[in-house]
């Protein structure tokens, strides 16, 4: 056998050993993009039956798809691409994975070191390419005849463990190969995956709160007015029941964001507040409510209304619960940080026997929640006449969408105005639904690709704005074979800027609103997806029902009158504030 044949076979055996070890360590999903230098690894993955392979041409889209897979499965997902600029296209997604604590394994193929810096084609310096955005970086030696399978097996176990603990996130493996990359002829055709080696046991610790910290926290909050705030997070199983039981023991409200996944499900939701975006703003009397303590779980809140209310509550004892080393405290208001598993914290506080808040405190929030719910449920909020009732309004469209979705369905919500609309208008139900979003860096890039990754694990709806959809429209090229409905709320550009001071500038439309003229339906159809444009709430619900029954990929465009939508929101806020009794609420909470 020639040296060249030896090199190609060695590359494949080395790659297969690593891939088999990754399978043994628990890797089940890889998203790969075509390329030459990555061929040994690509073939090894494709021939490993324990790992599901998805092929996506665009590395940027592939990375966000892997992000969605990892979110949906709660397990690390891998990426594979060739050398050169290809891995640089992963950067936006891995920044999201870094800030959003999502486990990813990045496998970039590379040229051998003797080519680096000598003008070789498709060769860049890939060492430490992603800097501090990855949890660890490894660049194993080139395959050689004496390579150690034991090393590769432990490297596989280590990188997957690094992606999970102590802070979930991306890990980068840069893997160089010399040519010829693969063996030729019969050797290539007959080489197959071997049996996976025995798994190497890795046991991460469970972060338990210190008993003294729990007793000190209870001493600070017992029998005083306060509440629980639950931001977005991938909470452990059982958290919804535990935090609801804690709220019952303390008899306090829970302000729960949609990405907390507390709004929908069979757990006790009797102390849940989901309309706070309306009743915590002026002129509502609850805008002046001052809690003496706050328990904050998960990410810092999305909406400016709740952020501002927390800022005004700055003197309160703020106990922030974080399951890792990060400090989710951008207002610098935390008085205590409990670095522990949130479920364990809830159970420890429950066992400590917390005392309820003063009578009337929770009643004030329950009264405000009920009043806001009544206004939101009233048909066509702020409609001046029957003709206006045919207009599309996010406050009607979103509840209708959630009502239609079957139990257990997944919904990915895009950033900008869409996530704020979901926060304001989702409501709450005992029907279980699972919500996702990219709130690490909160960009509009890659949102459809992330939803495609989630749809790899089961049917998914993506709720996005028109600019978000256009930003990632090429993701639909990979939508075939997935049950995904993309709902595009098309308000003619960056509608979120209507609520910011820049809306008054003469350059507003050109530089911030940036309305586009793309035909989203035609674009979706060009990628093989069904496309429908609807003009009323009734048409919208019928379109969603058809898409659910049909299966596959569908894009539904809902034109929104932006100015009418802004007017309706403001009228909704006004009606909520006007419907609350200052005298009753001030007596109870202020």
TrEMBL record:
<keyword id="KW-0808">Transferase</keyword>
<keyword id="KW-0786">Thiamine pyrophosphate</keyword>
<comment type="subunit">
    <text>Homodimer.</text>
</comment>
<dbReference type="InterPro" id="IPR029035">
    <property type="entry name" value="DHS-like_NAD/FAD-binding_dom"/>
</dbReference>
<feature type="domain" description="Thiamine pyrophosphate enzyme N-terminal TPP-binding">
    <location>
        <begin position="15"/>
        <end position="129"/>
    </location>
</feature>
<dbReference type="InterPro" id="IPR029061">
    <property type="entry name" value="THDP-binding"/>
</dbReference>
<comment type="pathway">
    <text>Quinol/quinone metabolism; 1,4-dihydroxy-2-naphthoate biosynthesis; 1,4-dihydroxy-2-naphthoate from chorismate: step 2/7.</text>
</comment>
<dbReference type="Pfam" id="PF02775">
    <property type="entry name" value="TPP_enzyme_C"/>
</dbReference>
<keyword id="KW-0460">Magnesium</keyword>
<keyword id="KW-0479">Metal-binding</keyword>
<comment type="similarity">
    <text>Belongs to the TPP enzyme family. MenD subfamily.</text>
</comment>
<comment type="function">
    <text>Catalyzes the thiamine diphosphate-dependent decarboxylation of 2-oxoglutarate and the subsequent addition of the resulting succinic semialdehyde-thiamine pyrophosphate anion to isochorismate to yield 2-succinyl-5-enolpyruvyl-6-hydroxy-3-cyclohexene-1-carboxylate (SEPHCHC).</text>
</comment>
<dbReference type="Pfam" id="PF02776">
    <property type="entry name" value="TPP_enzyme_N"/>
</dbReference>
<protein>
    <recommendedName>
        <fullName>2-succinyl-5-enolpyruvyl-6-hydroxy-3-cyclohexene-1-carboxylate synthase</fullName>
        <ecNumber>2.2.1.9</ecNumber>
    </recommendedName>
</protein>
<keyword id="KW-0464">Manganese</keyword>
<feature type="domain" description="Thiamine pyrophosphate enzyme TPP-binding">
    <location>
        <begin position="430"/>
        <end position="558"/>
    </location>
</feature>
<dbReference type="GO" id="GO:0070204">
    <property type="term" value="F:2-succinyl-5-enolpyruvyl-6-hydroxy-3-cyclohexene-1-carboxylic-acid synthase activity"/>
</dbReference>
<dbReference type="InterPro" id="IPR004433">
    <property type="entry name" value="MenaQ_synth_MenD"/>
</dbReference>
<comment type="pathway">
    <text>Quinol/quinone metabolism; menaquinone biosynthesis.</text>
</comment>
<dbReference type="InterPro" id="IPR012001">
    <property type="entry name" value="Thiamin_PyroP_enz_TPP-bd_dom"/>
</dbReference>
<dbReference type="InterPro" id="IPR011766">
    <property type="entry name" value="TPP_enzyme_TPP-bd"/>
</dbReference>
<keyword id="KW-0474">Menaquinone biosynthesis</keyword>
